[in-house]
Specification:
Length: 187
């Protein structure tokens, strides 16, 4: 399992997941290397809109159409910090480019300034916090049947409402979450 790279994949929390942060979660993996992995939970909007976030960080939001966009719980690491998953990747101060795609994950304020003034980048998912795994940790969790992985599609990330993302990923696999067993086994 050491050679598996899950960058640009979705992780689906298996029904046996008892960690309340990840139970029922759909995680988009932004980076997976031998040093660990990081991703964002993409199906957990919190009780905050973009207009409230911009007000809290003292930034103007000049694009009224963006005011009601949800902010997401991205994961339990650095929950006081914002992370923007977006396309196109652009050139921001602190952007992790996801593989060879024109997709980035940015943690610098300059992207929010541009979003608030020009509505760019066009496709965004804004979260507070991220999900992180140390070296070998994600591989171990997958070996224990904690996560199911599937290649991601940007249409699911940016074109579906949050409550439809996990069912859409499961549909791509050909079954529903209710069909998965809470008991893990190995053949």
């Amino acid at each position: 399992m050491d050679s598996v790279n899950l960058t640009d994949h979705f992780l689906i929390a298996m029904p046996s997941m008892t960690d309340p942060y990840f139970s029922g979660a759909l995680v988009y993996v932004c980076e997976h290397t031998e040093n660990g992995a990081m991703g964002l939970i993409v199906n957990r909007p919190i009780d905050m809109t973009l207009s409230v976030l911009f007000e809290k960080i003292d930034l103007p939001l000049e694009i009224p159409d963006l005011a009601d966009l949800p902010v997401y719980f991205g994961g339990p690491v650095m929950i006081d910090r914002g992370f923007v998953l977006h396309r196109p990747a652009g050139n921001w101060q602190a952007t992790l480019r996801v593989r060879d795609h024109d997709l980035g994950m940015t943690s610098s304020r300059d992207i929010l300034v541009e979003l608030g003034s020009k509505g760019e980048p066009r496709d965004t998912l804004i979260s507070l916090g991220y999900a992180g795994w140390g070296a070998g940790q994600l591989e171990d969790e997958i070996a224990q049947n904690t996560w199911l992985s599937v290649p991601a599609t940007h249409e699911i990330l940016f074109e579906l409402p949050p409550e439809e993302r996990l069912p859409a990923v499961m549909q791509r696999l050909g079954f529903s979450l209710s069909q998965l067993s809470e008991v893990a086994g190995h053949a």
